[in-house]
């Protein structure tokens, strides 16, 4: 296929016949699934299911991450034509990837959301697919990890973030985007000894044993040294990757609820994600994209690239 196929291809989210292959419809038109993948609730034979959880409840400063999945899907139209640059292979040629759509929930019944997220992601896992989730605030990662750990046991975690999210929170009923990792470690679903947080640049008195590679250390030591430490910590453990978009400096991702200066540049994030090739990735998410605060769309573009890199990471050993 080539770009000339745009003359006949449209709405590939519904009309594409195969779960594999690139798409060449006009980027400015058509139904905007993630990467123009087929929208489907049928997960038979699917390798990767991209899904949205448009939930934000009580972010620190600027709400709006409920619009993240929609914005990420829209800008991903620009990425659907070519394999991700620099990988040396096309993940869409070796993986069956679909857009599983968004999770349904009652916005006025917040208490039921955690269980809904766990069941939603659990259904993806039970079908044999890897979940790549578009958020939503960072709370959503906690019930996702519950679903993963229920099937795989305690996992290693690679977290890209400006905040460690291990502030003390022993109230099981609180739904908080800033304490997901504290609760995950206390619940025994994340192994802190095999986990690392990258890009941190806020103080926290107790990170519960997670290795912290803060943003200044990444800037100072460089990509290869950072990756060497990540690999030493994670080893060959089944690993989940969560990417809070505020891991990036606000110059690269202004559309987030909790911007903090001094963060990663987009090129550093790209190099770090690419350098994780070979890890035993079992799922991942990109969260906290808040489009109302970025009229340029740069933050959503970054989020879409992160999601595509996660798919490429998952497909690396299957290429």
Automatic annotation (TrEMBL):
PROSITE patterns: ARGINASE_1, ARGINASE_2. Its EC number is 3.5.3.11. The keyword Repeat does not apply. InterPro entries: Agmatinase-rel (IPR005925), Ureohydrolase (IPR006035), Ureohydrolase_dom_sf (IPR023696), Ureohydrolase_Mn_BS (IPR020855). One of its GO terms (molecular function) is metal ion binding. It is an enzyme of class 3 (hydrolase). Mn(2+) binds at residues 138, 161, 163, 165, 244, 246. Binds 2 manganese ions per subunit. NCBIfam families: agmatinase, PRK02190.1. This is Agmatinase. It comes from Paracoccus haeundaensis. The gene is speB.
């Amino acid at each position: 296929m080539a770009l000339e196929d745009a003359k006949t291809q449209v709405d590939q989210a519904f009309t594409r016949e195969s779960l594999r292959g690139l798409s060449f419809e006009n980027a400015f038109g058509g139904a905007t699934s993630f990467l123009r993948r087929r929208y489907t609730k049928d997960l038979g034979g699917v390798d990767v299911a991209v899904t949205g959880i448009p939930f934000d409840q009580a972010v620190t400063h600027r709400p709006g991450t409920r619009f993240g999945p929609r914005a990420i899907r829209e800008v991903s139209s620009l990425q659907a034509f070519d394999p991700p640059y620099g990988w040396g292979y096309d993940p869409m040629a070796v993986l069956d990837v679909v857009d599983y759509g968004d999770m349904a929930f009652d916005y006025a019944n917040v208490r039921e959301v955690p269980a809904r997220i766990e069941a939603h992601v659990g259904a993806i896992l039970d079908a044999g697919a890897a979940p790549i989730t578009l958020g939503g605030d960072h709370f959503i990662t906690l019930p996702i990890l519950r679903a993963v750990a229920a099937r795989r046991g305690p996992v290693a975690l690679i977290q890209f973030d400006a905040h460690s999210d291990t502030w003390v929170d022993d109230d099981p009923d609180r739904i908080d985007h800033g304490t997901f990792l504290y609760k995950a470690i206390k619940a025994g679903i994340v192994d802190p000894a095999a986990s690392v947080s990258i890009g941190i640049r806020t103080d926290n008195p107790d990170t519960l044993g997670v290795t912290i590679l803060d943003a200044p250390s990444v800037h100072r030591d460089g990509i290869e040294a950072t990756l060497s430490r990540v690999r030493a910590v994670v080893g060959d453990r089944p690993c989940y990757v969560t990417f809070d978009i505020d891991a990036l400096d606000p110059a690269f991702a202004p559309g987030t609820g909790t911007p903090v200066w001094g963060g990663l540049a987009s090129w550093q994030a790209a190099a770090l994600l690419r350098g994780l090739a070979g890890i035993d990735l079992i799922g991942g998410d990109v969260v906290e994209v808040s489009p109302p605060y970025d009229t340029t769309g740069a933050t959503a573009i970054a989020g879409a690239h992160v999601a595509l890199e996660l798919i490429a990471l998952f497909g690396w050993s299957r290429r």
